[in-house]
Amino acid sequence: QVLVVGCGNSELSEQMYDVGMCEDIINIDVSDAVIRQMRERSAGTRPKMSYLLMDMLQMDFPDAHFQVVLDKGTLDALLTDEEEATLAKVDQMFAEISRVLQVGGRYLCVSLAQGHVLKKAVEYFSQEGWVVRVHQVASSGDKQQFVLPVFVYVMTKFRKIPGSAAQILEICPEEQDRPVRVESTERLVAAVKDRQHYALLCSQISKIPCREQVSLDLCDKESGKPRYTLHVVDSPSVKPSRDNHFAIFIIPQGRETEWLFGTEEGRRQLVASAGFGRLVTVALHREQHYDSMASIQAELSGKVMELAPPGLPARQQVPFLSVGGDIGVRAVRHCDSSPLSGEFVVEDVKGDGTCYFRRLIFLRNRNVVQSEARLLAPTPLPGQKKRRKDKKKPSPIEPPGAIDKSYLCCEHHKAMVAGLCLLGGPDALPGELAVLVVGLGGGSLPLFVHDYFSQARVAVVEIDPSMLEVATRWFGFSQGDRMQVHVSDGLDYVAKLAAEAPAQYDAIMFDVDSKDLTVGMSCPPPAFVEKPFLQKVKTILKPEGVFVLNLVCRDARLKESVLATLRDVFPLLYARRIQGEVNEILFCQPGPAG
């Protein structure tokens, strides 16, 4: 037996009856005109279905009379606000539904799932000990009546167990066969809101071009963690034709940090060079496993079509593009966390070509490579035979060779080392070069200075002891007579030197990141470019020395302030911009070089 509350003039009951889903249906409504109209429509054709004039807040049915109570939009119509009187009516509606429903029966509520409506329904029935599941049953799109998706709340009545606080809350997205358990009402409401936002986004970008790049995460069904990060980029310079409306670009694993794929300007250049009106770039996440390009295409093909541009011809084949035709190679070698740097990973990736690189990534800023080193190709031992072709194929990444210490991967590191020429030509360099590096990372910068300048004595200051361990274990870093690491706050270390041992360094290099992501300057921390501290830096620098600073600042006003402060302390200041990056290398000297 099915009870339809607030039936109105909806055809739902009639359609359920006509297709044979169920016939014993009682429909109630408070409108006498509606009930007479619906009785007339079903007279003689649906003998087992009835329409009754009745208020759902005070029903005449006996307790536990129905197996199903069906509500199509009635709760949405009643709960238009959160005034006390409205909420009292909703509580009465729910109490009456609970009374007339049998144990094991279900209350099915078709709804657009506004936040306050969903929250009220879920909280009420979960506190009564019912099992609560929310199904997404229809997406937005050309075939749908609404821009927002449609949901059905399925509330299954259980006997309330005294003293039990256990709640069973589930969501069943449209594209999944089985529900996903969530831990709280807040998480369930948030999951529904995500899908509503996505539907609004799809509706908007299907009608008009994107003025700004749109970013979204597609999450793994099981874990709920991001599996793909998509950017939707439109090119106003491309005139769409039948064959160049829309394409999908799969970024090979490990290359999502490159300028072309990891920045807005790079992606604009990518879509223009690809020659498509709209390009969706797809970045793959390191925590996820991917079998092949074909499996990724199969997984994404339905979802990316929801992001298609306006005017895409029907049944248009949408090409999947990539670099080199494969999904790239990424092998996570080490995962850890520290109180200072947070979670981080060390991973090996295949670059553009045959080279492999090792990277240090701080997961709080996962699209920024903190340190990078090139790996030497493994060399066979003397007498070692080559692998026969009929043997098992090697894994995508062979056991890596040693770190190539002679190669600087980072362009800003190359510029920083080049700044040493301000000390003079090769013959003019002091016989023993004293260098202070603040910020170790993977150790590539101090290692290169140490190895390239045979007379250099390098002191490194690093605040996080975990980074010294990472550099030593994974990036070939080692200490010796000419290389010493001091685990200390760079601010304290420089202040102490300024008080005890002034004018002792030929070169001072700052390559230290800021842990505070709310500031528009990610390198260095603001305290490192305050005037009193810069004066201490000047104190420990020899008169003819050079202070080299890696500046990463997106805030134009803050950047001007930093440059003005530097000029106050160092009369000579040179700037070297790194093409395609935000980094700018500043070379500062106390006075004219000799």
Automatic annotation (TrEMBL):
Basic residues bias (residue ranges): 384-394
Protein encoded by which gene: Mettl13
Gene3D superfamilies in alphabetical order: Vaccinia Virus protein VP39
UniProt superkingdom: Eukaryota
Sorted UniProt keywords: Methyltransferase, Multifunctional enzyme, Transferase
Location of the Methyltransferase type domain: 3-108
GO molecular function: methyltransferase activity
Cited PANTHER family: EEF1A LYSINE AND N-TERMINAL METHYLTRANSFERASE, SAM-DEPENDENT METHYLTRANSFERASE SUPERFAMILY PROTEIN
CDD domains: AdoMet_MTases
Family: Belongs to the methyltransferase superfamily.
Region Disordered, annotated ranges: 379-400
Example GO BP: methylation
Name of the protein in its database record: eEF1A lysine and N-terminal methyltransferase
InterPro entries hit by this protein: Lys/N-term_MeTrsfase_sf (IPR051419), Methyltransf_11 (IPR013216), SAM-dependent_MTases_sf (IPR029063)
Classification via Pfam families: Methyltransf_11, Spermine_synth
